[in-house]
């Protein structure tokens, strides 16, 4: 959900196998930096592995560029990492939410092989008003 210069992302904390609940404190939303969050749904072990790899890659980016990644750049990184593993893929579907330049909200989701779908809220708003 987005608003003017803000966004909200939420999920449940249930980890389960079919109808059996294993845990109720499983983390699905991860903070990458102050203006960027990553939500991972799907297989729990793949979500944790992918999160660790993405944190590692973000830290490398910070060392090289001396700044945080923009949400658009991070979405491209996630998409490339998922597509790289398309034959032995991670069974999770990421949602990337953040604030870009001028605190413009950005939300992107993708499937398990990295096909991105970026939500353009300005276009949706214009279509609704017309």
TrEMBL record:
<dbReference type="GO" id="GO:0016787">
    <property type="term" value="F:hydrolase activity"/>
</dbReference>
<protein>
    <submittedName>
        <fullName>Proteasome endopeptidase complex</fullName>
        <ecNumber>3.4.25.1</ecNumber>
    </submittedName>
</protein>
<keyword id="KW-0647">Proteasome</keyword>
<dbReference type="Pfam" id="PF00227">
    <property type="entry name" value="Proteasome"/>
</dbReference>
<dbReference type="GO" id="GO:0005839">
    <property type="term" value="C:proteasome core complex"/>
</dbReference>
<dbReference type="InterPro" id="IPR029055">
    <property type="entry name" value="Ntn_hydrolases_N"/>
</dbReference>
<dbReference type="InterPro" id="IPR023333">
    <property type="entry name" value="Proteasome_suB-type"/>
</dbReference>
<keyword id="KW-0378">Hydrolase</keyword>
<dbReference type="GO" id="GO:0051603">
    <property type="term" value="P:proteolysis involved in protein catabolic process"/>
</dbReference>
<dbReference type="InterPro" id="IPR001353">
    <property type="entry name" value="Proteasome_sua/b"/>
</dbReference>
């Amino acid at each position: 959900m987005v608003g003017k210069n803000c966004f909200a992302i939420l999920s449940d904390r249930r980890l389960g196998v079919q109808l059996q609940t294993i845990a109720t404190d499983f983390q699905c939303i991860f903070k990458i930096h102050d203006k960027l969050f990553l939500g991972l749904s799907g297989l729990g072990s793949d979500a944790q592995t992918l999160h660790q790899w993405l944190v590692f890659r973000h830290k490398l980016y910070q060392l090289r560029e001396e700044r945080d990644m923009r949400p658009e750049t991070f979405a491209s990184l996630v998409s490339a990492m998922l597509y790289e593993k398309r034959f032995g893929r991670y069974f999770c579907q990421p949602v990337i939410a953040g604030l870009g330049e001028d605190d413009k909200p950005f939300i992107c989701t993708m499937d398990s092989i990295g096909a991105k779908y970026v939500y353009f809220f300005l276009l949706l708003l214009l279509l609704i008003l017309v």
